[in-house]
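Friendly challenge for the regulars: who can give me the structure tokens for this chain first? No prize, just bragging rights.
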Amino acid sequence: MTRFFTITLIFLAFLCISCENKALVPSKSDADEVSDSDEIPDDDSDSGTELISDLKVEENKENVLSCRLTFSTTEERKTFVKYYSDTHKGYKISEKTAKNEHYFFLWGMRENLDYKIEIYSDEEEPELLATTEFRSGNAPDHIPAMYLGDRNLEKTAEGFVLFQYAATSYDHIFPITVMVDTDGEVVWYYEYDQWYLSALGDVAWDPEKQTILIGLLKDAVAYDSLAEEAIEIDLEGNIVWKSPEIMSYYYGPGSWNHAYYKMKDGSVTFPQAVYDTCIVGDRIVNLDADSYAELWSWDYRNYFEKPDCSDNTSGDVWLDWTHTNSVSMFKEDGIVYINSRNFSTFFKIDMATGAIIWRLGKNGDFTFVGNSENPWFELAHEPEINGVNGNKVIFFDNGTAERGFSRIVEYAIDETNMTAEMIFEFDGRDLGKGWWSEYWGDADRMVNDNIFVTAGFYDMQQTSRFFEVTHEGEVVWELFMEKTEDWQTSLYKADKFMPPLEFLK
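First reply, four minutes later:
Bragging rights claimed.
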């Protein structure tokens, strides 16, 4: 990951959209049950009692692919809303409880479409209460262009892809995070326009709180200024939490690098940069989210001998020693997993004592079972713990320049017999889809057992892409990012998740 960004951002202007609120509220006498294919009744009756009142549709200026819907009902009702267009099947959102005052945030829309919004009573036999309209706007034009490759939607996991991006040219880096659907359409975005940022960093979806955590890549010019390192936002773009403000910058002394996590107990965890003599290493820290008071830490220097710095006479050359790029902390079990890219080793650590329980990798504690020309991962990113009691782990195996290709590998770990078996391997070379990503990458298991892969490059000979591969090695979905003769979009990692929306068929 790029260590420092040194450009100054200009403020970005949000695009304005028009919002039509042509409401139709049926009277009690002509509001009948309406199925997906029923016509909306004409409001040609003066008799009866109105089912709803104060119907309003308000544009969301933070994200023009969404709007706010409010209305009142005379009686307490539980309701649901469907919204769709002629070219987009759309979604359904339901309330959990009955109430008089109703609020829906309608999101996940595609650009520049006329959406019909239908409001129903949420009953065994739903009743149409009202209908209205909303026209979505255009997402910021600096979001990179994307195009689909291979696609088999019957085998592809449903959901949205949440990501931030960089670029090989500073002119194309913006503090924005984006969601796309399986048709490759932009359906959500968020911009954080601050002077000390040149990009947004680690981005993660929290399914329980339905929020998004964003690590901030603070520019080196923020070193002498107090500024936060991370924010948590809701889907509407409201900041619901931000980290304490500190004087440092991304990968600076005491600051975070690579991965910023918010734990179930509300604390935060990340690799913290350590500058010592001639080395740059990491401490793994778990901090109070509001004060940054240290709750737990682990330091490589307590377990490994530092490199010799006697030849570093200039004092201005820093050796990238440990390069931790992933932490998986299970506080309830007292276990933390740490991945060191430069050690090519995945560690399991006892949080109570700090002891290394085991090391997985070429020089680790496990015996490899099976036949493989390349049994162990090298310079890997983003291991993901799966299986029963964490006995399976997936790696985005970057590979060395000597090996010349990246791949996705999954191991089954037997901690009793201390063996590791490679149970999945995919490098795409036999399909003409091989790649080599020297620095970045991500691989996540989907609910349908597919693996979702992020392969992003600074190498102009390749094109950054997302793809989804089955356990049988079939690529069932690809999305390629914008690339020109002069620059290309770069990707670090992404989350693919099922949003809290019901997809209309």
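DSSP finds no helices and 35 strands in the chain. The first strand starts at residue 52 and ends at 59. Your move, everyone else.
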